[in-house]
Amino acid sequence: MNNLNEHYRVLLGLDESWTVSDVDLQLEDNSVVIELSHRGGPLTCPECQGSCGKADTAPPRSWRHLDTMQFKTEIRAAVPRCRCARCGVKTVAVPWAGKHSRFTLMFEAFGIRVLQAAANVSRAAALLDLNWESVHTLIERAVARGIDRRTLDEIKHVGIDEKSLGKGHDYVSVLTDQDHRRVLDVTKDRTIMATDELWQTLSETQRNAVESVSLDMWQAFMTSTSKNAPGAEIVHDKFHVSKYLNEAVDKVRRREHRELKSEGDERLTGLRQLLLYNEENLDEDGQVEMQILQKSDLRTGRAWAIKENFRHFWLSADSESAGEFFRSWYGWAIRSRLEPIKTVARMLKRHLPGLLSYFRHHVTNGLAEGFNSKIQSIKSAARGFRSFANYRLRILFYCGRLNLLPEIPCH
Ligand SMILES: [Zn+2]
């Protein structure tokens, strides 16, 4: 048995203070229990790293390890407790597992890889033979580790977005790093408090170094951002603007469609989706329909033309020519006699500095570009979610680009 013991000692990366005292193969239930024992000698305090003597031994406990062949493998050990003059009695750190973990470091690393590769969390849980609670713990530890390591990164361009959660009016706010295309954090709601909380995921040094924040024209986001990232410039980009303009066109269409229908006129039937497209993305039939609409005397056609025209704003060479473009576009919109369009035009005018900032930073919305579908798939896979905390962890696990893997010591 000695060779097998030595084999496990090397595999587990144990240092000289630990020895494999027994390997118990339990053939009837396909499992292996590896018994470890401490050799004695001086101990290191887990808090202050000071050298200290032994107080006593904690009751034996076990850690799930990587399967050996097809045998479910468990490490069992009674860990000594040291008596530190400064910190009191503490259980010493073990080389094979992280603090408070029920898994060995190698199992954690493997579990993280399986979770990353599996199509969904329940599939990974089945592959790893873990229950939901344990998978949750694994994800939680990995994310905490990743966030901890992220505190030194320089983060220059961020975005804040709202995302609706489910069918009701539940919203979450999402902070993204636009340079590294990753989600930095998620909080429940879209209030000032929720946004403040979002900013807390960055250190003060990081917050002060942020150069631009791309966000929706939502007052809570703006108020919190000026407070938490005082050096950052607020940018409203084309995704935010086109969202409002599309909504305005749709309001005009709905109202006009109702009026026409009551007179038996079906000209606006089935146009809703078409009106959301940019002109160049329309197929031939769509282009013909839009030409007919524009030549008609319908208000919807005018609203659509005003929306489409605003896209030239983003093509301006610099903020000066963009400002000029805006003035003439604004005049057109205000004279349009289309209330929803006028409302958006006034809002854009109020936020003009943020719109013009785009020409200094040229940032676009990370969430709209990449994370939306990923977050959506997490949301729909998450019907069984017990809490928001769970949802947040999974977004950070899958979209946070965090350095999740534990460091495994080797001897
Ligand atoms: Zn200590």
From TrEMBL:
A Pfam family that the UniProt record links to this protein: Zn_ribbon_ISL3
For this protein, the parts annotated as crossing the membrane are none
Q: Where is the Transposase IS204/IS1001/IS1096/IS1165 helix-turn-helix domain?
A: 92-143
Domain Transposase IS204/IS1001/IS1096/IS1165 zinc-finger, chain residue ranges per copy: 44-87
Q: Residue limits of the Transposase IS204/IS1001/IS1096/IS1165 DDE domain?
A: 158-395
Among PANTHER family, the record links this protein to: TRANSPOSASE FOR INSERTION SEQUENCE ELEMENT IS1557 (PTHR33498:SF1)
The entry's protein name is Transposase
Organism field = Allorhodopirellula solitaria
